[in-house]
Amino acid sequence: MIEIHSKLPAQDVTIFSTMSAMAQRLNAINLSQGFPDFPAPAELLQALSQATLEGNNQYAAGDGLLSLREQVAAQFEKRDQLNLDPITEITITPGATIGIFSAIQAIVHAGDEVIIFDPSYDSYAPSVQLVEATVIHIPLTTPDFSVDWNQVKAAITDKTRMIIVNTPHNPTGTIWSKQDWLNLIALIQDKNIVVLSDEVYEHLVFDGQHHYSALSFPELRERSFVIGSFGKTFHVTGWKTGYCVATPQLMKVFRQVYQFANFCGVTPIQIALANFMQQHPEHIQNLASFYQQKRDFFQLGLAQSRFKFTPSQGTYFQNVDYSDIRPDLNDVEMCQFLAEQHKIVAIPVSVFYQHAPKNLRFIRFCFAKKQETLTHACEILSQV
Ligand code: PMP
Ligand code: GLN
């Protein structure tokens, strides 16, 4: 008999797979897993088709297609006046997830400590556990999901090797202010701590607010990885293409690992994205207002319901409080109830915690949906 010892024995199938499968089984509206139900720009799809037909179907350069890396550099220059070297400081990865995984593998050693803020994206903690490091979970303060900096200060030890930041934040839709970053800098600038900044929703920031990238702070430049995802920006989550940015010193150790995690990204997808970004700069320019309209439309509909919420500041998620509707149900039960009784599927927020507050009554809806989907969803939600 073969003996198998799982490295993640307590790990179930991810909540996203579970809830999307539930939506399919019940033929329900899927506002759970984060993905658009509308098509990507036609020119982008054509660019992919063209790239494959023109024969670009073999391995790409391991670090990524240079013209796409140049497009990423141009975005940082425009927003943060940063002068990045696309050759030594940017790597294209097949999705943000593998970028996060590789950065952790590259930097964190067994016995180190990594601080993450709960609720946290589901891949962070398991990626840290796999290097036999300890995850230090710091809960964000409810109901506004802000950071308690005294708690962060108290959590930092000689073993702290990395802090994982996510702004705009999944699942709460909050964003870090400049002051948040300054608070972080004050706590870590004289310590040997690396920042892994997950900024996959960098272009989805609303109400004229600014997205502050970790790299825009000179004090964080030498110690930060920034992770991005073209999937969110170009409505192609299934293309699983992202990027990692860091100084040449950090990027060197990242690539030492990443080259064996995946070697390279998908060739024709990189070509299509680079061509589209070059020819359609308006796509990114218009993205925040495109999603803000969806957020506003969804909120207008929700205002007719008994769900309570603070408007999402960023991402394509809206967190809602259902305590006026079914305070007797925990959030997993509430999602089950909504799916079975009302044919609408959401994500329970407690699954993003190590220890969720007992009375947490929040669920997450994704509003990256067509107008008709949102209209239908709001009609249902206002009856709940
Ligand atoms: N980080 C966060 C916060 C996310 O929401 C997602 C979305 N799925 C990812 C990382 C992973 O992105 P990708 O699909 O490009 O791997
Ligand atoms: N990031 C997406 C979400 O939060 C899902 C990604 C996934 O399915 N792994 O819904």
From TrEMBL:
<dbReference type="InterPro" id="IPR051326">
    <property type="entry name" value="Kynurenine-oxoglutarate_AT"/>
</dbReference>
<dbReference type="GO" id="GO:0030170">
    <property type="term" value="F:pyridoxal phosphate binding"/>
</dbReference>
<dbReference type="InterPro" id="IPR015422">
    <property type="entry name" value="PyrdxlP-dep_Trfase_small"/>
</dbReference>
<feature type="domain" description="Aminotransferase class I/classII large">
    <location>
        <begin position="29"/>
        <end position="380"/>
    </location>
</feature>
<keyword id="KW-0808">Transferase</keyword>
<keyword id="KW-0663">Pyridoxal phosphate</keyword>
<dbReference type="InterPro" id="IPR004839">
    <property type="entry name" value="Aminotransferase_I/II_large"/>
</dbReference>
<dbReference type="GO" id="GO:0005737">
    <property type="term" value="C:cytoplasm"/>
</dbReference>
<keyword id="KW-0032">Aminotransferase</keyword>
<dbReference type="InterPro" id="IPR015421">
    <property type="entry name" value="PyrdxlP-dep_Trfase_major"/>
</dbReference>
<comment type="similarity">
    <text>Belongs to the class-I pyridoxal-phosphate-dependent aminotransferase family.</text>
</comment>
<dbReference type="Pfam" id="PF00155">
    <property type="entry name" value="Aminotran_1_2"/>
</dbReference>
<protein>
    <submittedName>
        <fullName>Aminotransferase class I/II-fold pyridoxal phosphate-dependent enzyme</fullName>
    </submittedName>
</protein>
<dbReference type="InterPro" id="IPR015424">
    <property type="entry name" value="PyrdxlP-dep_Trfase"/>
</dbReference>
<dbReference type="GO" id="GO:0016212">
    <property type="term" value="F:kynurenine-oxoglutarate transaminase activity"/>
</dbReference>
